[in-house]
Amino acid sequence: MTGLYYEEFDIGETIKHEKRRTISEHDNQQFCDMTMNQQPLHLDSEFAAEMEFGERLVNGLY
């Protein structure tokens, strides 16, 4: 289901996403490098362990 505009979705509509994959540590590192986002929350496991979620987070733009 691609190519729809916001107005074309129905309220409460459920969209099934068939394609999926696991984001690897390498994927996360590479995305941070490409977007020049070197925030420790995404890359530093010791720093991230002390934050709210307790582990590194994948960038929300991924």
Automatic annotation (TrEMBL):
Coiled coil residues, start to end:
none
Task: List residues of the MaoC-like domain.
Answer: 11-62
The protein in question is named Acyl dehydratase
Q: Which species does the entry assign this protein to?
A: Haloquadratum walsbyi J07HQW2
Q: Which InterPro entries match?
A: HotDog_dom_sf, MaoC-like_dom, MCH/BMMD
Q: One Pfam family this chain carries?
A: MaoC_dehydratas
Top-rank lineage group of the source organism: Archaea
